[in-house]
Amino acid sequence: MGAVVQPGGMRPRFVGRIGPADAITLANAVVGLLAAVVAISDPHLAARLVLLAAVGDGLDGVVARSFGGTPVGEYLDSLSDVAAFGVAPAVLVVGLVRAEWGFSLGTPSIQLAVTLVVAALFLAMVVLRLGLYTAYDTGTGHTHGVPSTLAATILGAAVLARIVSPEVVLVGAALLSYLMVAEIDYPDLLARDALLMGVVHVIAVIAPDAFGRAFPYALLTLALAYTALGPALYWRGGDVSHLVGE
Questions:
Q1: Do 21 and 73 form a contact (C-beta atoms < 8 A)?
Q2: pTM score
Q3: Phi/psi at 176 (nearest 5 deg)?
Q4: pLDDT band for position 155 (cuts 50, 70, 90)
Q5: What pLDDT score was predicted for residue 240?
């Protein structure tokens, strides 16, 4: 005798279990996929998509606080971040270095090997960092290591600012890989500062070349300043937002 199908048993399992914030999180994963697909042929577009996903990463937190989150939200967030801030930036590194050095992806070379090692290291550290964050840091108001969203933002902003020297890209990606899993305490951004970063993010995505690429430079400066000075100088009181957090 066959199994009895309960009423509503044929509907997708997620119906009624995810909210508006989760939908934005899933959209971020799709944006990450698009960025990875175009990163080899068009690193500039891929960088804009990575920054767009960073905006979405902040927006889903705002929506969750405004309309309520779901038990699955934090897990979806980390999984989505792997695509948007792990896979996409890693492929972006390969696309950038390949465009400058001109090596073939199908022909073994030292340049290709070094590039792939750095890209793989970046992705691995993003996955490890997100796992550690979900297990130990969620809801604490701070996080250990540079947030993966911030690391991806630095890479994306650098591309839009036309800082694409292969040596700088590779060293920068390797350094960010270490900083993402370093035992450095980063406070979450205050809401007012997250809003400022979000506005600069959006303008950098929409008009990256306006005013001599002023907004990518501004975004890169803010991101690097927080990376370097945040653990020691950033004020930790008040309400917080995760625009540059996980």
A1: yes
A2: 0.88
A3: -65, -35
A4: very high
A5: 38
Q: Which letter, b or e, does each residue of 165-175 get, where b requires 16 or more Cβ atoms within 10 Å of its Cβ?
A: ebeebbebbbe
Distances (CA, A) of 72 to 27, 69, 81, 89: 15, 8, 14, 25
Spatial separation of the C-alpha atoms in residues 209 and 215, rounded to whole Å: 8
The bridge status of strand 142-144 relative to strand 185-187 is antiparallel
The stretch 97-108 carries a mean pLDDT of: 90
Report d(CA 64, CA 245) in Å as an integer. Answer: 14
Q: Which domains does the chain have, with CATH numbers?
A: 20-241 (1.20.120)
Burial class (CB in 10 A: 0-12, 13-18, 19+), 246: buried
CA dihedral of residues 225, 128, 87, 200 (deg, nearest 10): -20
* Contacts for 65 with CB less than 8 Å, ≥ 6 apart: none
d(CA 205, CA 215): 9
Taking each helix axis from N to C end, the angle separating 166-180 and 148-160, rounded to the nearest 10 degrees, works out to: 170
